[in-house]
Fold:
Amino acid sequence: KESFKPFELLLIKVSFVDQANDIIDSDIYVKLTAKDENLLKIFTKDKVFLEEVVKSGEETLYKFDQYARPGIYLLEAKVEDLDFKQEKELEVEKVEKLNYSLVGDILTAKNIGNVQIKRNVELLLKIQDQTTNRIIFLDLDIGQERSYKLEAPKGTYNLEIKQENETISFFDIPLTGNVVTTVELEKKDKINTGGL
Structure:
């Protein structure tokens, strides 16, 4: 497989063989680095994500982390004793994903994808036969979250969050207030996104 998403496993099997296709006992140095220009703007040129010595004919695993940056990476395998090297390009795909949580009257949206998200999201507060909508604009960097306090006249509401081709629902939310509104609370900084 040459294309991966965050959290996926990369299985690396390295073999150094002779002309009869028999495995030659040797140590193979395996390294995974950033290759394309966009990644090199984020990481230094010498940033290494995986560096390991594997016996010829054996396997090793590498797990891309949740915030693995999209782009082209270079997997290198080099036989330690000889001047033999093989390279393969791998791509990490872009993933736009938001996670929503609701605690009491606080709605939190968190970017759990691997790219910045800028989009409008529609909130629908429903009580009996009445629906009120609000549009909020989310501008969240990788790992960043933003919270909103939901306010509406006293009652128990259902909440639908509509974004692109997805609807997320929360049920039986007790709210108190005079008008339907969303109050943006402080934005939490992104978590460490320097890894792959």
